[in-house]
Prior knowledge:
22% strand; 5-stranded parallel sheet; 15 helices
Amino acid sequence: MKKREFWFVVGSQFLYGPGVLDTVAARAKEMAEELSKVLPYPLVYKVTAKTSAEITNVVKEANFSDECAGIITWCHTFSPSKMWIAGLSSLQKPYCHLATQYNREIPNDEIDMDFMNLNQAAHGDREHGFIAARLRMPRKVIAGYWQDEKVHKSLSDWMKAAVGVAVSREMKVMRFGDNMREVAVTEGDKVEVQIKLGWEVNTWAVGDLVKEMNAVTEAQIDAMVAEYKSKYDINTDNLEAIRYQAREEIAMKKMMDEQGCMAFANTFQDLYGMEQLPGLASQDLMSKGYGYGGEGDWKVAAMTAIMKAMGEGGNGASAFMEDYTYHLVQGQEYSLGAHMLEVCPSVAGDKPRIETHHLGIGMNEKDPARLVFEGKAGKGIVVSLIDMGGRLRLIVQDIEAVKPIMPMPNLPVARVMWRAMPNLLTGVECWITAGGAHHTVLSYDVTAEQMRDWARMMDIEFVHIDKNTTPEKLEEELMIKDLIWKLK
Ligand code: MN
């Protein structure tokens, strides 16, 4: 995984004299070191900034640093904000303002004017916050004591969202074939996503993939099958189908790695020269952090890769998902999500088993091998990025996944069952009102707040459907946002 870090930039001024500035610098370094022990990425103390030039220089350095995924600022003392204008105006990296204080308590006996002048974050952070508001900067404000777990959680979540920004700006998507014929929601403006989100979305011929597949050796396939056996149960006698999927996975991974692609899309309508739609192959690639979208859906493919990278350990429990069918028994209303093959095993609640079954859709000459499992229970979100024409809208809905309430022994694919917020049917009304797709990324470890942070940093519209959303309120919100985004 790529090395990523965040920079700690502390504001001050010359007014206090060298003694105070030395104390500020020493404490800032100590805080960065202590926070680095509990945060998912290192926080590197860079500078106690006292001049416009110092701020501009550290921002220039941050903009060009491949490792720097964002800056975190704080004002131990007062830092007049006009000197931040040039630097902040040129900042191209995610920005978080940590409103904290070195000391937790006001020391009753010790406090005097010297103490007040050294420890005036309450004062300094307000001046600092004003200028970012005045500059209309997209930023995250986190307030709290720097040693508190709650602050660590907020900083961790924001850092992961900022890494999602870095991953987005590096994102390359490999398309095998075009979008499924006639489908609207999977379409989008590839130039717009490259401008806004940084994604390079390009196509490669299925015939070239088949050439790569033919070049895969039996020894390579043996090694891949051994890897499958170490991770999954084999529940089929059709070993040839498993070997064919291994061949597909090796070839797709080679092509993607050669091009630096972290996501791919394919379509069952274009399998020319392939015997099976990649099932197990796509699922195993997703487990390794690659994003995938079915039916040519490159938007969901890229979002899957980005949200995986934002999750635990840089490859979290996030999966390409599709709302398939409902259970509408009163009091136990659920969505059943699945796909024709390709559900990522990172969301499995039990050990996935490899099975082969007939697949009627598409041009499969042979039965594709796939992983079959039940999704785990837990709170999560589903996410859909749609192209509204002139702008992108990110829709996030809170969900509660359950262990599927029935075994469904004849369903030949992995399945996840959940209830959308505020409840299934109101949730469906809201989702459809907002224009959300049937394809989503379902995540157990990326939160709606992180997606809100990500959307703010990417400068795209954000819509959140949660336990308090009503279709009426949402309709008004969408009308207002429509106006705002036409003006922006
Ligand atoms: Mn689909």
